[in-house]
């Protein structure tokens, strides 16, 4: 049994990206997790003008890293369960995004100031682009688990699909 998504670990003081129903993937748990990721980005955005607020930047990146790790892992488990055919590619995208967040975190921990604006732009493009793009591709498979396997079975039995 998975834990419920309770409170958002990042509080957004202002919204850079607004959540809309158009971003929904039709799974309330994943939607709630996506909202938290967006809230983290919203929290991070105003801090870009305050590079001296290293502790806050670090705390936000750390929370983002924790949360992204949980979300990616749960999403991958579900995609595997429903037989999503793009699973491997999806997992590769998750790995690349996680590595970027992890790199930002370790750079900060070692006192290396990353190019925050550039990294934020990449992070924003990747995470929001992923939620609005790649994550939407699995929607039909969440609605009809193992639809691909069923189609293969129907084909092999000469039934229409
Ligand atoms: Fe996602
Ligand atoms: Fe994803």
Describe this structure in words.
- The chain has 161 residues and is mainly alpha-helical.
- It has one domain: Four Helix Bundle (Hemerythrin (Met), subunit A) (Up-down Bundle).
- The protein contains seven helices and no strands.
- α3 runs antiparallel to α4 (116-132).
- The longest helix has 28 residues, at 54-81.
- The chain is elongated.
- The model is unreliable at 152-156 (pLDDT under 50).
- One fe (ii) ion binds next to α1 and α2.
Helix content: 55-70%
CATH class: Mainly Alpha
Strand content of the residues, in percent? Answer: under 5%
CATH homologous superfamily caption:
Hemerythrin-like
| N-end to C-end Cα span | 34 Å
Compressed to H and E, one letter per element, the order equals HHHHHHH
Instruction: Using the coordinates shown, work out and report the CATH topology.
Output: Four Helix Bundle (Hemerythrin (Met), subunit A)
* Overall average pLDDT: 82
Anisotropy-based shape? elongated
Bound molecules: fe (ii) ion
Q: Count the helices. How many?
A: 7
Q: Which structural class do you get from the secondary structure elements?
A: mainly alpha
Radius of gyration: 18 Å
CATH architecture: Up-down Bundle
Main β-sheet, in a few words? none
Q: Low-confidence parts, pLDDT < 50 over ≥5 residues?
A: 152-156
Count of the domains: 1
Number of strands: 0
Task: Explain the layout of strands and helices.
Blueprint: H1 28-47, H2 54-81, H3 87-109, H4 116-132, H5 134-137, H6 139-143, H7 147-156
The structure holds fe (ii) ion (2 copies).
Short description:
The protein contains seven helices and no strands. By secondary structure, the chain is an all-alpha fold.
